[in-house]
Here is the input.
Amino acid sequence: MLRLNRAGLRFVAGLAIVASLALMLSCGADDTNGSDRNSSMAPGFVLEDLGGRKVSSQEFVGKITILNFWTTWCTYCRKEIPHLNELYEDYRSRGVEVVGVSFDDRGAADVIPFMQKVPMNYPILIGNRSVGNSFGGIVGFPTTIILDRKWQIFKKYPGLTGKDVLEHDIKVLLARD
Here is the structure.
């Protein structure tokens, strides 16, 4: 039987705390402030949609774009989907685009069955590490990036973000028009 002295117990407790923090970051934490990135141009990309069609970020220039980096296994991501569906319905006629970028290992093979259980009415693209890194890295899911019509990064929200926060940002950007 393994016996730990006090130092060993402290070490194990420290590891448990670090592991807990890593888990929280890996599947989001609430961030209602977001980080302002007004001067930063968003990188371009070409990703496949669920049907295999190549989609260029150029298709979204000129629109306020909510890029939501997510996975099917992330609980917080699932909580955001109904809000993103509502925002897409409410604002797409005013030039707002919602785009989900899935980081699931098997791509469309994971996402399509998931969408049969959890409907998503906005475009879904299959992401990769390269596109995540080009946006400054995706440290946890979900991560939402708000882009203005000129494709400048307006806000970046790591973690679960409320509908009211995203809607406020949309209204601020619409008021700039």
Observations:
- The chain has one domain: 6-175.
- The chain has five helices and eight strands.
- The domain at 6-175 is CATH 3.40.30.10 (Glutaredoxin).
- The first strand starts at residue 35 and ends at 36.
